[in-house]
Amino acid sequence: MAERKSAYSLDDLLECAHGRLFGPGNAQLPLPPMLMIDRITHISDEGGEHGKGLIKAEFDIKPELWFFPCHFEGDPIMPGCLGLDGAWQLLGFFLGWIGGKGKGRAVGVGEVKFSAMVTPAVKKIEYIIQLKRVVNRRLVVGVADCTILADGELAFTITDMKVGLQTEEQAA
């Protein structure tokens, strides 16, 4: 694994998407256009509301993003599932960042609440992920809550999202 940093650029995230940041067979982000993160501004395995870790990341919203023309024609909004997927992506990244082995898989979510829409007029969304539980043994799992802000306004609240890492041996 590369040096563990406290912030990551888009180029770093693309290295992860190509499987080069955490090594073959380990946590890997999706490539654009499914990559829902442009940069991680802060990542730590300490702090946060529960003292288990904190991630802050950003995604630049551009009117030409692929989902706006089709969701919905004449009334473009970012699908809520993409905000949730971005949060899952970040939690999986965190598990690789702490040295967990295996490929990331979304395992579940407690509740998702929508407070505001992300439209083409929004410039940036911010993810704030508070780790609640982290297991890094033979089984690697993270449980976290997430707040997503659209230009500083609350847009999503996600509770008890879960991501696990699965090795090839565990998948067999």
UniProtKB/TrEMBL annotation:
Gene Ontology molecular function terms on file? (3R)-hydroxyacyl-[acyl-carrier-protein] dehydratase activity; isomerase activity
Matching InterPro entries: FabA, FabA_FabZ, HotDog_dom_sf
Query: PANTHER family under this entry?
Result: 3-HYDROXYACYL-[ACYL-CARRIER-PROTEIN] DEHYDRATASE, 3-HYDROXYDECANOYL-[ACYL-CARRIER-PROTEIN] DEHYDRATASE
E.C. numbers: 4.2.1.59
| Family label | Belongs to the thioester dehydratase family. FabA subfamily.
Name used for this protein in its record: 3-hydroxyacyl-[acyl-carrier-protein] dehydratase FabA
The record's subunit annotation is:
Homodimer.
What's its catalytic activity? a (3R)-hydroxyacyl-[ACP] = a (2E)-enoyl-[ACP] + H2O
- Give the organism's phylogenetic lineage: Bacteria, Pseudomonadati, Pseudomonadota, Alphaproteobacteria, Hyphomicrobiales
Q: What is its main location?
A: cytoplasm
What domain of life does the native source organism fall in? Bacteria
Keywords linked to the UniProt accession: Cytoplasm, Fatty acid biosynthesis, Fatty acid metabolism, Isomerase, Lipid biosynthesis, Lipid metabolism, Lyase
Q: In which pathway does it act?
A: Lipid metabolism; fatty acid biosynthesis
Q: Where in the cell is it found?
A: Cytoplasm
Write one Pfam family the protein is assigned to.
FabA
Give the CC-aspect GO terms: cytoplasm
What's a single GO BP term from this record? fatty acid biosynthetic process
